[in-house]
Amino acid sequence: MVKQVVQICAGMLFLALCVHSGAAAAGMLRVDGAQDGGGGSADTISHSLTLVQRLEALLVQGNGSDVSLRVETPSADEVKVIQTHSLVLSLQSPVFEEMLLSRNSSTLVLKESSDCAAVFDKFIRYLYCGEISLRLDQAIPLHKLATKYQVMGLQQGITQYMTQNLARDSSSGHVAGWYEYALQAGDVTLRDSCLQYMAWNLTSVLQSAEWVTISSQLLMSLLQRSDLILQSEMELFAALEAWIIQNEPDGLTAENALRAVRYAMMPPRELFRLQTQSSVLARYQESVRDLLYMSYQFHSASPLHMAKYFDVNCSLFMPRNYLSAVWGSPWIISNPTRDDRSTSFQTQLGPSGHDASKRVTWNALFSPRWLPLSMRPMYTETGAMQPTRVEGGRPRIIITPATSSADFAGVNFQKTVLVMAQQQGKVVVKHVYNFHQSTEENGDFLAEADLYRRTSDYLMDSSLFLHIVVKPLYQTLITTKN
Fold first, then answer.
1. In this structure, are strands 359-370 and 411-423 parallel, antiparallel, or unpaired?
2. How many CB atoms lie within 10 A of CB 164?
3. pLDDT tens by residue, 114-158
4. How far is the C-alpha of 254 from the C-alpha of 65, rounded, in Å?
5. pLDDT digit string (tens) for 376-385?
6. What are phi and psi of 117, to 5 degrees?
7. How far is CA 297 from the centre of its chain?
8. Which of 422, 402, 399, 404 shows the shortest CA–CA distance to 341?
9. Other Cβ atoms closer than 10 A to 225
10. What is the pLDDT of residue 48?
11. Which residues pair with 463 in a beta bridge?
């Protein structure tokens, strides 16, 4: 019986739409070269926009409505009633279809949270019109509704909207909140996008009002990563200290977080200052005393000597991606497709205080159209050698030291190239590439970048904005003694 009602309503709704559409102006006439059954070309007359407008009018005016949605909040202090059509609800949502088949009245009572109830009319309008306008603060409740009622197109669309608006400015921040929601909702795509954005643009996250509100789980997820991009380890400690003061976590949480800080990456003068001025470190100093002691040893002894007795491959002695001039240099390449470019810069040999006064000069070469040796035609028909850079090649960067030195013994230099881009009016890190000498080791360096188009997502003012980071990694030479 219920199915029959739905079918009758479908016929009534279609008839109403036809009548209204017939009164509308002529639609778009498109010649698309399609073939009709007789083999001739067929033109298309489109009234799709008018149809959407009529559907929206049906929703707004309630004409032909056969079901009322009564939206209530848990406290029942807010009630919203929307007149709808069972045909539209059933077509768009399998959950609504099931509810309509089992209903015993013309009213469906829906229990929604306050934030979802506030945007429920937007959600229903999407079911009728196939489009939606939203603000950053409305993304989560709309995603909840799309998930609950299995409107997959809207769910995927909002996930895409959120991943594309991570960089947008908001008064209180939103990326961490979106991450926590994605974790709870099981949206892996959104979760990973939020976490990567925070790791690659950590300085802006640390400076946002949202930082001190993040969960301890997210805090530890960030602290344990080596690919964090920020100015220095000291910047991270200051933010962690603010988080601990604001949240007053239990002792174990605070200790685990403080032990994830890489104190060896701080110069001895900063370590001394922390021990004398940080109230948080004074409170938990016993928990990190061993790390501080090892950090002082790291700065006072030569890395080769340290490597004989300690595992210098552990995270304490491993740099993150620091933007400080000590560890790399920005590189702006104007008109990157034009020809090869080169630059030189200096970095500190290593984070150890023993190497603080030692500098390494690096030469970087950027080739916009380079072909791997295996893809090059080595000789022409006349025997002349082909050039190594030809049309159809791909971008590559080679970074090598200007000189060799005995000080390099026991040090492995990892190079990282950060590719910057402008999103929502903000400069953010778009890609990160790690290698030892050449981006050829990756195989995908700027593989998807269109450097020829002035409006490319990879270009700002027709220039490619890069930042090169050199990460010295000390190698364990002899197994730990004693």
1. unpaired
2. 12
3. 999 999 999 999 998 889 999 999 999 999 999 999 999 999 999
4. 57
5. 555 555 544 4
6. -65, -35
7. 38
8. 399
9. 18
10. 75
11. 334, 460
Amino acid at 460: M
- pLDDT value of position 481: 40
Pairwise CA distance, residues 280 & 296, whole Å: 19
Q: What are the tens digits of pLDDT across the range 45-83?
A: 877 787 777 777 777 776 778 899 999 998 767 789 989
Span 324-350, average pLDDT: 94
Sheet with 79-84: strands ordered across? 79-84, 67-72, 107-111
pTM exceeds cut of 0.85: no
